[in-house]
Amino acid sequence: MGLLTFKGGIHPNDGKSLAKDQAIAEVLPKGDLVYPLSQHIGAPASPVVQKGDHVLKGQKIAEAGGFVSAPVYASVSGTVKGLEKHFNPTGSKVDCIVIENDGEYAEVEYPEVKPLNELTKEEVIKMIGDAGIVGMGGAGFPTRVKLSPKEPDKIEYIIANCAECEPYITADYRRMLENTEELVSGMRVILSLFENAKGIFGVEDNKKDCIEKLKEAVKDEPRMEVNVLQTKYPQGAERQLIYAVTKRAINSAMLPADAGCIVDNVETLVSIHRAVVEGKPLMERVVTVSGNAVAKPGNFRVLLGTNQQELVEAAGGFKTEPKKVISGGPMMGFAMMTLDTPVTKTSSSILGFTEDEVEKAKPGPCINCGRCVEICPSRIIPSRLADYAERHDEETFTAQNGLECVECGSCSYVCPAKRPLKQSIGSMRKIALANRKKK
């Protein structure tokens, strides 16, 4: 029997050897902490503190601004300096709460938690929502909303996205090795909400040590199993992961719940454990700092709101001036114009490179080779869709299934003409999706 996978995909140099063997190291912030009010999909959080207020670590500083939203918590103790505009990792200036760290890390007294088997489903979902947990793999969708489908009895699979298919990033890999029990506990919490569901840990076969640890950890869990996936990009994309594990296909008009599935990232599951079993809100995450311009690549447990420049310094700084710095992975991340930006709930990595491969590429005309079609995981025709996008032909773009693109960048990676296919398609896709919402 072959490894579980999907049609298409690519095999880029993964670069994971730079940081994969570096155990998670703790980094404490030196300067002010900056907390964007929007670290998630949906309405921004609303501040509940004012300039001059003294706050404790674990204190709520912004409450959810609507049903699809998430609260924000202070990760240090100190004084609120005010509500200011700061750059976020994607380069936008957004409203942020700024806290001057007093260096004492005095914490609130967390409420006593009941054992999981004594909690109602409503209590579990409320604890997850109150903790401010969102999808921490990059999407940032509020987890409370994801765990509240219209028909919970029809959910058959809870899939832990343990693929971590983006090159260079090893934060989830270290979490799987070092926090195995917390990861399994997070899955146990979610399964308590869905009686008819099975918990599946989908792990790529290049992470054999993680597979062994997880199999050992779930051997006495009748509702959990480990599925070994083929190592391939984008194996961790939600649609591709669901298809690999269940052979169920979803499209842009569907949610995973429509196919009886819920998918959560490793970091999200660990945070769910912390919220429900330990009673603590989301205040930290693990971030990979890597790339050939970084002096000492590694994986760091960092408090949310920490300046990303400080995180790079914890990795020894840059051994040579980087030509490009990326927030997230090289395939789907964002080029950064400054490191003076905070670590947020969705910050998985900071990558520094000595060369800018994209800048060096000189796009040429399509040669109709078909490589983009062959590797496309969404089974669409990227070269044609990019043409429609460049001509601003939204009607034909939509008719030719442009909305089914997952923006993985595989087409741009293999294109011999170096056309920016993903960028063109992604821009038109955002316009088309926005227009569809208006109807």
UniProtKB/TrEMBL annotation:
Q: How does it assemble?
A: The complex is composed of six subunits: RnfA, RnfB, RnfC, RnfD, RnfE and RnfG.
4Fe-4S ferredoxin-type domain: which residues?
A: 357-386, 395-426
Q: Does the keyword tRNA processing apply?
A: no
Q: Where in or outside the cell? A: Cell membrane
**Annotated residues for binding of [4Fe-4S] cluster 1:** C366, C369, C372, C415
Q: Which PANTHER family match?
A: ION-TRANSLOCATING OXIDOREDUCTASE COMPLEX SUBUNIT C
Question: Alphabetically, which GO biological process terms does the record hold?
Answer: electron transport chain
Function recorded in the entry: Part of a membrane-bound complex that couples electron transfer with translocation of ions across the membrane.
How does the entry describe its membrane topology? Peripheral membrane protein
Return the cofactor note field.
Binds 2 [4Fe-4S] clusters per subunit.
Q: Which gene encodes it?
A: rnfC
How is this protein named in the record?
Ion-translocating oxidoreductase complex subunit C
In the Enzyme Commission scheme, what number(s) does this protein have?
7.-.-.-
GO terms under cellular component: plasma membrane
Binding, [4Fe-4S] cluster 2: C376, C405, C408, C411
Keywords attached to this entry: 4Fe-4S, Cell membrane, Electron transport, Iron, Iron-sulfur, Membrane, Metal-binding, Repeat, Translocase, Transport
Principal subcellular localisation of the protein:
membrane
Q: Which species is listed as the source?
A: Faecalicatena orotica
What are the GO MF terms of this UniProt record?
4 iron, 4 sulfur cluster binding; electron transfer activity; metal ion binding
Q: Which family does it belong to?
A: Belongs to the 4Fe4S bacterial-type ferredoxin family. RnfC subfamily.
Cofactors per UniProt?
[4Fe-4S] cluster
InterPro entries on file: 4Fe4S_Fe-S-bd, 4Fe4S_Fe_S_CS, Ion_transpt_RnfC/RsxC, Nuo51_FMN-bd, Nuo51_FMN-bd_sf, RnfC_N, Soluble_ligand-bd
